[in-house]
Design goal:
Blueprint: E1 5-8, E2 14-17, H1 25-29, H2 33-45, H3 47-56, H4 59-89, H5 96-119
Antiparallel strand pairs: 1-2
Helix pairs in contact: 2-3, 2-4, 4-5
């Protein structure tokens, strides 16, 4: 249960002192790809928690944390995959087309993994 503080006004009534988040819609619009996916996922799967985080001003902080964690994992997966496949397939790193294809492959794998391991992770 949430504890509320009250202030007494001149009319003798007690009014609750409510805190609202200081984030604006512009702050949420500047989020990156993974933060937006996390926001959509949270809104779809746990609307009450989304509303609570939004009202208390903690939503943006959580989404920024998810964004950082997601990109860190994404970069690790891409680099590891590229390094492994270059050696396996004997790809010349100077071959731009092959490296682009390989990086796109790695990015798709990384996106799927990040969705499962970071975005959809219960918090």
């Amino acid at each position: 249960m949430v504890e509320l503080n009250y202030r007494k006004e001149q009319d003798g009534l007690l009014y609750p002192m409510l805190e609202t988040g200081s984030q604006s819609s512009e702050d949420l619009e500047t989020l990156g790809r993974y933060a937006k996916r996390a926001q959509d996922y949270l809104l779809e799967k746990d609307k009450s928690r989304y509303s609570l985080l939004l009202r208390t001003g903690k939503l943006q902080g959580l989404l920024r944390q998810i964004e950082a964690e997601a990109w860190e994992l994404h970069d690790k997966i891409v680099e590891s995959y590229v390094k492994t496949k270059v050696a396996e397939r004997n790809i010349n790193p100077a071959d731009t087309m092959e490296m682009t294809k390989l990086r796109n492959e790695a990015a798709m794998i990384a996106q799927e993994t990040v969705m499962q391991e970071v975005i959809c992770k219960p918090r």
